[in-house]
Design brief:
It is a single chain. This protein is an alpha/beta fold. The chain folds into two domains: 179 residues, P-loop containing nucleotide triphosphate hydrolases (Rossmann fold); 76 residues, no CATH class. The protein is built from nine helices and ten strands. The strands form two sheets. The protein has a six-stranded mixed sheet with strand order 6-7-8-3-9-10, sandwiched between helices. Helix 3 packs parallel to helix 5. The longest helix has 21 residues. One of its GO terms (molecular function) is ATP binding.
């Protein structure tokens, strides 16, 4: 597997707090990479920096071999690095279909001759409908997005992100606030997406993480204390002590990532 994303000695400080503290890990093409860690470990801060919403104070992020430092958020999206609900937030009063149409149009650009417009429109609508089907919202096309359930809105956000044709999709807690059935549906959707793209997700639902991830990185106190397969992470002494285990206080180890 080729390396898709490399985070190297990344540092982000907020005043005296090192929210990202020399964090390093790689995401390989085709994998589902989960970023786990206790509350306040710095997971969202890391995702923000990768997506380009937050500038690191040190270190590097490479995507497909390119240093991302000069890339703004829009350029990262164009390069295939897309965060769910990064580009287009949901327009609550617009229908599900219109939301998806707008997202598809955003990617395709809008400058068209009048005689191309109709054909363009048909293609865009077909793509939007296909996205709705992919994320399980085919039956909701005409509903106002704001009237969807919480879980359906998360599905729509993923549909909007997919409109940008990501190579690497960043997902920050896709199952947050969902009941067991909704989480199960989201898990099925992510299983489907993994067939066509690489996923990097932050998630607190450990059952989902251990079922879905091909590799896991564990973040504690802004540092990646281990990276490995679910089996390696489950049996990693430092991880058990710092996070997964029931015994002992959280403790940052200096163990090298595997
Ligand atoms: N804009 C900010 N200004 C100051 N401190 C911040 C800011 N953003 C995050 N922090 C702090 O940085 C640390 C890491 O926060 P972050 O949200 O990245 O953690 P997290 O692992 O995603 O947590 P959770 O699992 O609870 O969502 C926390 O102590 C948080 O309070």
């Amino acid at each position: 597997m080729a390396e898709l994303l490399r985070v190297e000695s990344l540092v982000k400080t907020f005043g005296a707090l090192r929210a990202t503290d020399e964090a390093s890990f790689e995401v390989m093409e085709g994998e589902v990479h989960a970023l786990i860690g206790p509350n306040g470990a710095g997971k969202t801060t890391l995702i923000h920096q990768i997506a380009g919403g937050l500038r690191p104070d040190g270190g590097r992020i490479h995507f497909r071999g390119q240093d991302l430092a000069p890339f703004g958020m829009a350029a990262r999206v164009q390069a295939g690095l897309v965060r769910s609900h990064q580009i287009t937030s949901i327009f609550a009063r617009c229908s599900v279909l219109d939301n998806l149409v707008l997202a598809v149009q955003t990617r395709r650009g809008g400058a068209h001759q009048w005689w191309q417009a109709r054909r363009h429109q048909i293609v865009v609508i077909a793509e939007a409908e296909a996205l709705a089907q992919k994320v399980g919202l085919s039956a909701q096309l005409d509903r106002a997005a704001g009237s969807l359930s919480h879980a359906e809105q998360r599905q729509l956000e993923i549909g909007l992100a997919l409109a940008a044709k990501p190579r690497l999709l960043l997902l920050d807690e896709p199952m947050a606030g969902m009941g067991p059935d909704e989480s199960e549906r989201m898990l099925e959707l992510l299983q489907l997406l993994r067939l066509n793209m690489t996923l990097l997700l932050v998630e607190h639902d450990m059952d989902a993480v251990f079922r879905l991830a091909t590799r896991i990185s564990v973040l504690v106190g802004g540092r990646v204390i281990a990276t490995g397969t679910p089996e390696q992470i489950r049996s990693h002494a430092g991880v058990r002590e710092a996070y997964l285990g029931d015994e002992g206080p959280p403790h940052v180890t200096q163990e090298a990532a595997t």
